[in-house]
Amino acid sequence: MAPFIETRGLYHVFRLEDGRQIAAVRAVDLTIGRGEFVALIGPNGSGKSTLARHFNALLLPTSGSVWVDGLSTADPANLWRIRRRVGMVFQNPENQIVASTVEEDVAFGPENRALPPAEIRQRVDDALALVGLRDQRTTPPQMLSGGQKQLLAVAGALAARPDCIVFDEPTSMLDPRGRHQVMDTIRRLNSEAGLTVVLITQAMEEATAARRILAMDRGRIVLQGDPRAVFAQEERLADLGLELPPMADIARRLRQHGVPVSPGILSLTELTRALEAELRAGVTPC
Amino acid sequence: MESLSHIFAAGTPLRREALRDVNFRVETGERVGIAGHTGSGKSTLVQLLAGLLKPTAGQVLLDGVPAHGHNTTARDRRRRMGMGFQYPEDQIFEGTVFREVAFGPRNAGLKGKELQARVTWALGMVGLDADTVMERVPYTLSGGETRRVALASTIALQPEVLILDEPTAGLDPRGRDELLTQIGDWHTRTDLTLIVVSHDLTVLARTVDRVIVLRGGRVSASGPVRHVLSGTATLRESGLDPLPSVLLLEQVRAGGASVRIDRFLPEEAAAEIARALEAGTRSHVTRRESA
Ligand SMILES: Nc1ncnc2c1ncn2[C@@H]1O[C@H](COP(=O)(O)OP(=O)(O)OP(=O)(O)O)[C@@H](O)[C@H]1O
Ligand SMILES: Nc1ncnc2c1ncn2[C@@H]1O[C@H](COP(=O)(O)OP(=O)(O)OP(=O)(O)O)[C@@H](O)[C@H]1O
Ligand SMILES: [Mg+2]
Ligand SMILES: [Mg+2]
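# magnesium ion complex -> structure
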């Protein structure tokens, strides 16, 4: 996989009014491949959003460097090209609303790309359909419910069709169906259209959709690997204030009760299958 | 509240009926959860409860007084309620975390050491270390830190009725669990009335006694938490998924084990399944022995 985003020795230090400094990102060396799906997890304040803002040059390194598709974010001449390649869904969708109706808001990205009107309309339609907001196209965004605003932010990023989208907790306000819809869309765009995905989330189940999970703590990447490897590190995750996906958590507790289900279980299907085997075998828990 | 309905932008082309004919009572000291799909009317409902919106029909009574009234009794009732908004970022307006969290208590007359102690207590309730964050500028905090500060501002009022709209969104798992525990302890110590809106049924299973489910602005289910959260068909019809534990227990039951469905928390579900497996084995053994 060709590298798409690379960081080398990346530090980001915020200076506070009182002179204190916060090193929000420390010594991050990271390569995200083109078409990869990476999940970024970590406790509040661990540096996820700060790191992600380097991926489309919203922030520039205090030291170290970041390249996006071979373009250094430190070179102002690259700014526009980088922003076209990497879209962003912000943690608070209200920061992202720019227009007075849902459809104009979603059209903002494509319009900035000077696309023909028919193409823009098509993209807006597609994006609204993907998040289930078609019926709200003429609604002013401030009249949307909390979850609908989040869906709008996702639609806006999709309609711009960049090479990569950073989703900063895109489902935190969504009901289960909205979550599934957004996660299915992300997964499909990644596998079918080759979209490079960086997904920041507190929902461990969503992180299991990624090919690779990175866990941050106090500015550093402290744990990484495929979902099974990361979620096998139960104690490490607990130390970080994180948790296991729901089914892995129940499986862990079953093991504590002496039911021999294997540690790699992440999904409902996997756990159901393991338990069916147990039921058939009729093994006595010890 | 009585036959509560709410229509936004009535008489305009943007008319939105957010709630229709909602009736319920919340007793002092009760803990009530509100669930429902995206856009089902949850936030509208709690804003009506807090007297922040005036219903287009019906009324909300706080201790017998209309919630949105302008007289002093109504204002006094409202002052006893604290509301944590779904996007509380927008409610933050002070220049430091201390001033932000101190704002309500200061208006209520607290000062000096007492005020300081109240702010430290409220920040502790949301898992923030007062010394580290007190002088921070709120808008430079991380997403989760900001939400915690906003929650602390509401908690610092020590309201008699605490209304929280999606309080755990954006919190890390430990922060979420600690917050729920702290609020639970607070409820145990006092007569706190708690109203929690959440799309996360696990949050409701951990915090409330009674759940109201909204669907398209109407109540689709209402009752004790055990009852409502095990009503999988109604939850699905209302656009919600049953809890992960319940989904698993349904599968295990379909696989032939006799398990109860209303084991909502992961620890309860695991214990239930382990018990059923053991019982299954025992009956297996007994059958073999008697044969
Ligand atoms: N200020 C407003 N003006 C007009 N319509 C509104 C307004 N606020 C909400 N609505 C509409 O009322 C309905 C209910 O919205 P509400 O915010 O109460 O939903 P909710 O259940 O809180 O949803 P969510 O889980 O997405 O936060 C939605 O259809 C929404 O579009
Ligand atoms: N503009 C800023 N000025 C000063 N400090 C900042 C600024 N933005 C973030 N920080 C600090 O940097 C650290 C990392 O913040 P960041 O927003 O990257 O965390 P996060 O992992 O995204 O957390 P969350 O899960 O809460 O969203 C935090 O301690 C935060 O307070
Ligand atoms: Mg963040
Ligand atoms: Mg809402």
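# post-check
The radius of gyration of chain A is 21 Å.
The longest strand of chain A covers residues 3-15.
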